[in-house]
Amino acid sequence: MLNVGKIEEGFVLDHIKAGKAMLIYHYLHLDKLDCPVAIIKNARSEVMGKKDILKVECDINTLNLDVLAFIDRTITINVIKAGEIVEKKQVKLPQELRGIIHCHNPRCITSIEQGLPHIFYLADDKKRIYRCRFCDEKYDSARVAEIWK
What would the pLDDT profile of 95-122 be if each residue is shown by its tens digit? Predict the structure, then answer.
C-alpha cells in the first residue's frame, strides 16, 4: 500500500473520478505554485472502486476552485489546519465560469478581441451545460477534456 504523509496546512481534494486528477491539476494551475502537491491516482475506494486524490499544501484561498464541480461533482474538499481536517466542503456548480474554459467558436467575439475574458453562464444545472456569454456556444463537462488548454 502506498503511504503519503499528512499535510499541515492546505487541502485535500478527495473522491475524484479515477483518471481526472491531472486534468484538475492543470485547470487549477498547480504547476505554477511553489508548494508541495501529491497526486494519487487509482487509489482503492470502497464506494467508487477507484478514485484519484490531490493533496495540496497551500492556502485554499489562493486558488479558483469553481472548475471542480464542472469537471466532477463527486469531489469533496477537506480543508486542513494544524494537520487536522477542520472543514469538509461539497462542490457545487457556479453560476458563472470566468477565464476557466475558452470559447472555440471562430465567429465569437472572444476569437477576435484577444483581451476579452471568456465568460460562461450556467444554462442547465442538471446536464451541467454552460454557454458562452457572447455567442451562446454550448459546453458541457463531457467536453472539458477536449477543450482543455
Answer: 998 888 888 899 999 988 888 999 999 9
Q: Does the pLDDT of residue 127 top 90, yes or no? A: no
- Distances in Å between the alpha carbon of 132 and those of 69, 86, 113? 18, 36, 15
Evaluate if pTM is beyond 0.85: no
Domains of the chain with CATH codes = 10-90 (3.30.70.140), 96-143 (2.30.30)
> CA torsion 23→149→137→93, rounded to 10°?
30
| Inter-CA distances, 64 with 16, 49, 97, 127, 131, Å | 17, 28, 10, 22, 19
| Chain segment 9-42, per-residue pLDDT in tens | 999 999 999 988 998 998 888 888 888 999 999 8
* DSSP H stretches of helix in 2-120: 21-27, 67-71, 109-112
55 - beta bridge partners?
A: 12, 38
